[in-house]
């Protein structure tokens, strides 16, 4: 006989009050108005990444017409926005929609336990003073990001203890760092490094660095574009805000998709295009060794350079690029394997993030710990045989929020289906994992991805058991596909999990 679902503190508990969490809260209000929800945020402020990172020039690495939410137009003139502008956008949303009162700040989730008999999650939280509390929910939604907030990637450079200056990781940028007139070396060549370098040189009040050197082991493919979207700003003059935003968003999604496909299908043509843009921007400062990566475009994310600011700093002799390998740090800087030495007062290790799955939260289902690398993704947001649980892992080849929006919409569809059918539990049932062919969907060579493959959930070679990287098709599938697809199984509290029929398994493969 089926059990009865136990009372809960809220229907949905959202972990994280950054882009993903705030987006889900807004979608719940719009699509599931009778469902109660709360957000648990480990930090004292909302914003997630945009509150944590405070390094000079912190900005989006994609346009805000796709990094912004589908339901909330981006109104700023700049489409490549800085961190404060993105925080203003998020604060406005939570205040206008009454979400702020739903956020529990300084609430770090340290455990989550699913009880099938009661059909609920019990979530354990710890505040900033160490006090432990619990709360219960029907559904657990993780908007906790994809990297470790506590510990960045440590490249373990020899001789760190010998350096007499300051060593800083961008994830833990010190407040009011004085770098006026100092020699700075930024290790790395990704989005963070390319943002920091021009930002530390551009102060015209005597507070900028004397010189900033970007030390890279491997070059990166750069894409130059204006910080302002002239098309979007023109539309806003003649059309209602929401319509202008919708058209711009459609345009940018299509252009992103075309650019990615072209890079995969005709990499040499894209190399030629990107190289020509670099040469046009740098002129006689162009150095093939510094700007020709050993991989094809979009085998790692393209690095956005708004208004060519990084290259303008180089042409003004305020910044430079060195391509070499580090032998060790010493008292006055960095000794390179080529024999050269880089003098430095400050060394910034922009060497990458450390990925984390499910916010590093210990998750248990009926007392059994969940090992994520033993479970398959389902519909890019749930996991095989884990009930009433969803996460957001954004696109590698497009804006994070594009995935966050369609995942939120999809989970709301699932919740409404459960309400309509009088069921309590939704489980993507995979009875025979051996029936699937595993595939590495993360065919990106980026170091942070490769370092984390051993902890990542599994991907099959076919839907629905995969984390797809094709937003346009995903949006169609998530919005219009059958909820009761023979894989996602709906039961009542206390019922044994029903396995799909063999025919359904075959269709799922």
What does this structure look like?
The protein has 509 residues and is α/β, with parallel strands linked by helices. The protein has two domains: 296 residues, FAD/NAD(P)-binding domain (3-Layer(bba) Sandwich), CATH 3.50.50; 190 residues, FAD/NAD(P)-binding domain, CATH 3.50.50. Helices cover 29% and strands 20% of the residues. The chain contains 14 helices and 23 strands. Strands 1, 2, 3, 4, 5, 6, 17, 18 and 21 form a nine-stranded mixed β-sheet that branches. It has a five-stranded parallel β-sheet with strand order 7-16-8-9-12. Strands 13-14-15 form a three-stranded antiparallel β-sheet, with no helix packed on it. β13 and β14 form a beta hairpin. α1 packs parallel to α11. The chain starts with 9 loop residues before the first strand and ends with a helix. The C terminus is likely disordered.
Which terms would index this structure?
509 residues, FAD/NAD(P)-binding domain, 5-stranded parallel β-sheet, globular
Indicate the structural class.
Answer: alpha/beta
Our count of helices gives: 14
Count of strand segments:
23
Estimated share of beta-strand residues: 15-25%
Domain unit count? 2
Unreliable segments of 5+ consecutive residues:
497-509
Rounded to the nearest angstrom, the radius of gyration is: 24 Å
According to CATH, the homologous superfamily of the largest domain is FAD/NAD(P)-binding domain
- The CATH architecture category of the largest domain equals 3-Layer(bba) Sandwich
Quote the average pLDDT. Answer: 89
């Amino acid at each position: 006989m089926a059990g009865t679902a136990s009372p809960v503190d809220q229907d949905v508990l959202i972990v994280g009050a950054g882009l993903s969490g705030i987006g889900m809260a807004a979608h719940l209000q719009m699509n599931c108005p009778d469902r109660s929800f709360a957000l648990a945020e480990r930090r004292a402020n909302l914003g997630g990444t945009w509150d944590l990172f405070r390094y000079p020039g912190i900005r989006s690495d994609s346009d805000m017409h796709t990094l912004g939410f589908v339901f909330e137009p981006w109104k700023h003139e700049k489409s490549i926005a800085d961190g404060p502008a993105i925080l203003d956008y998020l604060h406005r949303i939570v205040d206008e929609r009454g979400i702020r009162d739903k956020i529990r700040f300084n609430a770090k989730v340290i455990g989550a336990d699913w009880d099938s008999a009661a059909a609920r999650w019990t979530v354990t939280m710890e505040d900033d003073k160490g006090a432990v509390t619990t709360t219960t929910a029907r559904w657990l939604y993780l908007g906790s990001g994809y990297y470790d907030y506590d510990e960045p990637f440590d490249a373990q450079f020899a001789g760190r203890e010998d350096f007499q200056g300051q060593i800083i990781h961008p994830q833990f940028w010190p407040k009011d760092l004085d770098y006026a007139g100092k020699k700075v070396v930024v290790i790395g060549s990704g989005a963070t490094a390319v943002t920091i370098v021009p930002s530390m040189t551009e102060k015209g009040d005597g507070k900028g660095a004397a010189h900033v050197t970007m030390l890279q082991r491997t070059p990166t493919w750069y894409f130059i574009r204006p910080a302002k979207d002239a098309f979007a700003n023109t539309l806003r003059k003649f059309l209602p805000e929401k319509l202008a935003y919708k058209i711009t968003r459609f345009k940018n999604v299509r252009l992103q998709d075309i650019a990615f496909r072209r890079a995969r299908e005709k990499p040499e043509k894209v190399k030629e295009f990107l190289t020509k843009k670099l040469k046009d921007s740098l002129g006689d400062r162009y150095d093939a060794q510094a700007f020709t990566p050993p991989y094809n475009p979009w085998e790692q994310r393209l690095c956005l350079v708004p208004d060519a600011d990084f290259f303008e700093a180089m042409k003004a002799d305020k910044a430079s690029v060195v391509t070499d390998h580090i032998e060790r740090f010493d008292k006055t800087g960095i000794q390179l394997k080529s024999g050269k030495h880089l003098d430095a007062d400050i060394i910034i290790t922009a060497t990458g993030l450390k990925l984390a799955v499910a916010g590093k939260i210990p998750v248990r289902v009926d007392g059994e710990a969940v090992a994520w690398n033993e479970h398959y993704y389902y519909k890019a947001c749930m996991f095989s045989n884990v009930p009433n649980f969803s996460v957001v892992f954004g696109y590698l080849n497009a804006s994070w929020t594009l995935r966050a929006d369609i995942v939120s919409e999809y989970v709301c569809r699932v919740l409404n289906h459960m309400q309509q059918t009088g069921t309590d539990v939704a489980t993507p049932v995979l009875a025979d994992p051996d029936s699937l062919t595993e595939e590495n969907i993360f065919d990106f060579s980026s170091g942070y991805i490769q370092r984390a493959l051993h902890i990542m959930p599994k991907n099959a070679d076919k839907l629905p058991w995969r984390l797809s990287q094709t937003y346009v098709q995903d949006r169609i599938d998530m919005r219009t596909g059958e909820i009761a697809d023979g894989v996602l199984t709906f039961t009542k509290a206390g019922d044994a999990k029903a396995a799909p029929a063999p025919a359904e398994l075959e269709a799922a493969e």
